[in-house]
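Format notes (please read before filing issues)

Several people have asked whether sequences and structure tokens are stored in separate files. They are not. Every record keeps both together, in the order shown below: the sequence lines, then the token lines. Line labels are part of the format and must not be stripped during preprocessing.
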Amino acid sequence: MNTLASSSAPAPVAAARRPVPRRGAPARWLALALETHISLPLFALFLLGAIWFGTLHVIESERRAATAAARDAARELLDTYEAQMARSLSNIDQTLRVLKYAVEQNGAEGALPALAAKGLLPPGLVFQVEITDGRGRVVASNPATGPRDLSGASYVEFHRHARQDLPYVSQAIVHAGNAEPHLHFTRRIDDVAGRFAGVAVVAVDPAYFTSSYERSRQGERGLLGLVGVDGVARALRVGEQVSWGQPYLPGATDVVELRTCRIDGETRYTSSRPLAGFPLVAVAGLSEAEQMAGFRQQRRAWLLGASAGSALLVAVVILVSAWSWQLAKARRRERQAQETYAAASEASPDAFFVLRTIAGQHGQVVDFTIVTTNSRAEQLTGLRKEQLAGQPMSRMLPAAFSVGIFADLAAVVQDGAAREAEWLARSLPQGERWLHRQAVAVEGGVVVIVRDITERKLAERRIHHLAHHDDLTGLPNRSLLRERLGQAILDAQRSGAAVGLAFIDLDGFKLVNDALGHNAGDELLKVVGARMARCLLGGDTLARFGGDEFVILLPALQGEPASIAPLLERVRLAVTEPVLVEGQEVRVSCSIGATFYPSDGVDANALMMHADVAMYRAKELGNDNVQFYASEMNASIDEKLVLLEGLRAAVDSCGDGGACQFELLYQPKVDLRSNRLFGVEALIRWRHPEQGLVSPDRFIGLAEESGLIVPIGEWVLRTACAQGVAWRAAGLPPLCMSVNVSARQFEDTRLVGRIADALRSSGLPPDGLELEVTESLIMRDLGRSVGKMRELKAMGVSLSIDDFGTGYSSLSALKTFPISRLKIDKSFVADLADSAGDQAIALAVISLGHKLNLRVIAEGVETAQQRDFLRANDCDEMQGYLFSRPLPAPELARLLADSHGNRA
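Then the structure lines:
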């Protein structure tokens, strides 16, 4: 029993003592770790890592954004420069083509005087024009340079051996007697037999092609220029220096690359793009150092801020750790921390205010004492630190009490929650500035950080304005219009007032745009927009809806819709006044459709749609008028939509092998002297499955608007060609098949190919086809139209001008058309027997056609008196009901067979 007792007694003692070290060691380590001078540095290391990670992440994001902005700027610069060069080169090439044509018409020596007489020579101060003969000798020049031998010039050799009519651009050349180098743009001149007969030359100073260099956009070390596809610079500008002739590799097309230029060793964001129609590449570059300067400055600011924050954090950690380690040194450590804080705050771009609370009898905050500030606070307030230190805020900064700043700071002291706010400070030495403040409670007071955010606010305003206004006219855009229209409807609902809305479309704007160019069109829109705006009152809104469409919003109206008629009439008259655009006076009119809330619609969409419907009714009535919406107008729109859907089905029916709803009739053309039937005009008809025979007047315009005229026109062309071949295969005399070409078809870039394919697939010889085009269609783009007509003429296809006399072509333009026939419009033939005016017009057209070696045909001849007058005055041909109405193919075949049999 004693042994058990003795052996067992120590066991509980050992068991009780062994756990003590195990529990005490971790506790001691935990207590040590919780000491402020140990735990705080560890926590500070974590914060420092977070600060620097965040700072470096922001810097990297800023770097990427700056790089992207630099690349976008380089790309935008190239877009602008490429567009400028395209216009300049197009003008130079147009001059070369005019020179060629002038040489063909007037000879090499008479070409320049002929062009000078017409005012078609380019200014001699910028462009030097020369014409050489086949041996490379200069035979004419402007300004005059005297005879020179250019037989050894590269471009003479190029055009002598190159059969294609391609432009050539030389390297910079210095000729004797001219100290300045010039780039020579040339085209080959052929004689009547197609042999090399000389070269048309336009010489331009290389600096002309880099004159658009803008230091504000491209800096001091930007790059701009033209480089040949041979890798030799034609004109290169770096900063203020213009050079040429050096090797330069442009790089990949439309790719912004960061490259080091061999010319000056500068690293740039560079991009290049070939110029259509010329062996040239446009090159633009922005200096990487200049583009990234802002980022590098911002990076320094971020690094400085992170350093200041780190220094502040380290100082606080040292202060608290030292206080925990040795309380006796707390004051010295505190003073050092304050000095460190002051240094950090001085480096900050923000203003710091350290304020101590002044409490009232009941503990409420009644004022603050300014303890200290930094230099940025001095700049902001215009007061020195010494003036502010120790002074009450109510005396030194009284404006803080009137704008609610004091109440905000007092609330921060009361609840300890940080607060931020923005306000417009009006009484600063710098003038009005937008400021942002952040107030943080500290023991015994509050710290206020103030930042100037004026630039950010101005940027936000600019962005808001751009988002709600049209770039070209400065008028509200459709987004702002819809916002104001919705608000006007809400206001009218509350007040019982009305709202007027007018949709305006300019008549004839496309003609100005096509004839004079987009710059002229833009100028016209700005002038017309300003005129309409002057007709409105202060609360009204004029918005540009898009293209040549404008909308007027008239809120808070009283009375009937007719009450706004005088205002809309003033707007219409203001639009019709002549406008001087690029030295030429032009006129446009406008079609206006008006609606009224609530009678014409109770929401914005309904009002906009009904105003659009009314505007289209105004156009249907002949343009240049005002129409108020009526519910009956929707029926016309619905009918048009139904007809359009049926037209699409008709097009599909002719392409899927089914029963085609279209058919062709053929109206004979007769020689007035011999009465011989020599040709027919193909006329389309539409047999609608429900509406029966639909007049071309109803569906041709609709097909033109919708674009369906292209497949319809191709069907007409192929069907007419096939029918012409079928008649010939049946042993009938060959006829010339005439087919009308619409505006959409003529503007189609594939028109020539479609015609060639139709001739090839049908087997009709090209001289068996004649295309009829209107003179107004040709004049939309004279240069391109004449070029396309010459391609067709070269193919062997005949061309005639339909409805001659109703358009606006000039005689100088008419003589350039490669046509064989003029057609007198039926409007001049209808009263030919009785109207002296129509007789005079018909005689003038006949005389003009014969002077130009063209045959003249009159359409719409229905009476013997009309025929006799035309025959007596040497008109060549006629067509009309007097001889025959338009006939189906079988009836026309019988008529042709009878006519052929009678003649036999």
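For reference, the curators noted about this record: Residues 36-106 form the longest helix (71 residues). The chain has a mean pLDDT of 84.
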